[in-house]
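**User:** Hello, beginner here. Are you able to go through the protein record under this note? It all follows right here:
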Amino acid sequence: MTPLRLHDSLRRQKVPFEPLEPGKVGMYVCGPTPYAPAHIGHAYSAISFDTIRRSLRFLGYVVRYVRNITDVEDKIIRRANELGEDPMALAARFADAYNSDMAQFGVMPPDVEPKVSTHIAEIIDLTAKLVANGSAYAVDGDVYFQVDTFPPYGKLSGMSVDDLRAGASERELVEKAKKSPVDFALWKAAKPGEPAWDSPWGKGRPGWHIECSAMTVAHLGQSFDIHGGGKDLIFPHHENEIAQSQGAYGTETFARYWMHNGFLNFDGEKMSKSLGNVFGCDQIADAVGGEALRFFCVKHHYRSPIEFEVDEIRALDGTPTGVRFRSLEAADRDLEYFYVTLSKIDAFTAQGGDGGDGAVLPEAEKLVRATHEALADDFNSPKVMAAMHEAAQLGNKLIAEGKGIDKAVRRRTLARVARDLRAVGEALGVLANAPATYLRDRRDRLVRRKAIDVTKIDRLIADRAAARAAKDFTRGDEIRNELAAIGIELLDTPQGTDWRVHDDAS
């Protein structure tokens, strides 16, 4: 078991990770509130914590991963009323779509996926505990957590209760009869057009924050190892989770470690519908493929803000016709390099086996060790990626310049490089496809994006084959050059001539 240090948002520094049970990790990540199609921001957070989960497994931990579906919430109800749809049906529809979208990016399903609607009894029980011990109070069917009863409030976010109170709305205090404007809702009295359940305080529904506390306790216990989510959830959501969970059970610790992924920015701006920089998951997958987005994300540290570069495409008259995802296209080219490398190694080792058991070149021993060290240092995926590039460079060098190296050692080394690249790729959620499948799909995307005439290419390749058969090599070279001029690179293999689209940054 590799010793691990991770950054704890509560302590604001990297600390040794000591799980409640040695070798096992209980991990809860805030999932979606499904009221609209998922976008790239949802994907980045899901990929970040899926990578942490995979990395923990790579380091030898057994992980119980819980990610919820918040299917009872204000936004869902508003959206359902706008569409004239049942809120539960709308949430279920978008939750299914979310899971399908995340699968495109290599995000594994959670071990447990609790829904608010199936945990109402646990939510009511938790709320009742808070009322009974004086941490919460009921007013006209609403129930509020009394922040003043929890002195550590604000420790996670660094917020001062006095400052929060001074900035709160006095109008809300009067309208809702709260004891303090900083008190927050645990249970909301029923309103027309909203789903409602029976409770000790009358018909109503849960507040947002209490939902995650109840689901976490139900599936991981009153204290567990890791709680994750985006930085935007630190306040008020995670701050309130701590207060109500510890307030209910009298525990000193709710989550032992808090982890938060960084923001996704577009040319220095946060993602915002008003700025027009919210991009859907299908839009990304259609443009560059889901794995390219994943690759782009894991090239960055999960806590770092990511700058996402997008160009607007315009017609000759200046009319906007679409967007180009420059950052993702670069990641896709980088990802192609790894798949081409694996394809070459697979073809090379298939010719004469992997060389059997025995020693490999010392350079081939580095990747797995470097990955353990990087992931054990707060899941440093950029360092892993650098080590993967070194391994791929070694593989390409051995294929191109293997003279003077024992053939069996060379084959064993190449087989080791490919095996370790795939194993480390599993820890990051990349390189899981067969190279031929990935490269074919990538070519198809480029053909669509560049509007390439495949019929013309096939005809020219056939003409070239005929010219070469007639020993007219001059004409064969002319056709190769003609294809190269339109960005098509020919690949002559023992199985025949294939082709790829030359994808540069222009």
Summary: The chain has a mean pLDDT of 91. The first strand starts at residue 5 and ends at 8. The longest helix spans residues 326-352.
